[in-house]
Design brief:
single chain, 296 residues, alpha/beta, 12 strands, elongated
Length: 296
Amino acid sequence: MKHFNLKKIPAAIALGGVLIFGGTAPAAEATVEISAVMKMETKIVNWNRGSDSEILALGIGRPDPRGMALSREAAIMSAQRTLLGTIQGLLIDSETTMEDFLIGRDTVTRKIKGILRGAQIVEEDSISDGGYYVIMRVPLYGQNSIASAIVPELTAYSPQPFAQVAETDLSPSEVQTLQTISYSGVVVDASGLGLDETFSPVIYDTNGRAIYGIKNLNPDEIISRGMVSYSTALQDQIARDRAGSNPLIVKAVEVRGGQNSVNKVNCVVSVEDADKILLANERSHMLDTCAVVFVR
């Protein structure tokens, strides 16, 4: 997906801090050609930014003879509608979209409405045809994020311990190494397998054993960082930031959905690699801190 062609935010906006819906429209420094605005993507979901992952949405307000402030208000409302539609399409887990999740959950619906009202304006300007455009941002993780609205609903229980390795085909020397070295994280290489992004992925082994999932984790950690960071390369900055300088790297043998879905959000690793992850975690507790990267 093509990224927004973001320009520098005018000084009036940068000095005034983040503008929220309902604020006073700043005086534009210069208009932007309508052709440039129309080439922008309407929406972008950036999952590949770790804990800074986000949704960006473009809103355009047509020229209004009553003044630019009304064009700006229309642009904000347009961006908020696009944000809402994008949020509704997000995958909560392999079985559920955000739209499914919102049905009958008034508390979550109210939280999402509040998040939309507080969405940040990261860029705005007048357009050469007399209209106005804004680009608005909603974070996936952190305070006032999508995760802060949904994770409490998904984790209304005490975290369960990770699976234990009772018997393994790994050699005694391999086991000793895994329990001696302090790994900084785990990287699951699922490149080329068509992995989709979600708030609640699971790592399984080929026998169906769940190695890593939302039920094992502290909700506050998930809200703050997300369960995994999605990366496009084994050695990019996102992978290094999340998995650290000495990660355990394993290869996914496939990606899969749930029992009733085709949403390929979960990684499957070999039984031996699953044992490696669990044995390494006994020393490093890397899974507890969500030091997990999925390479897509």
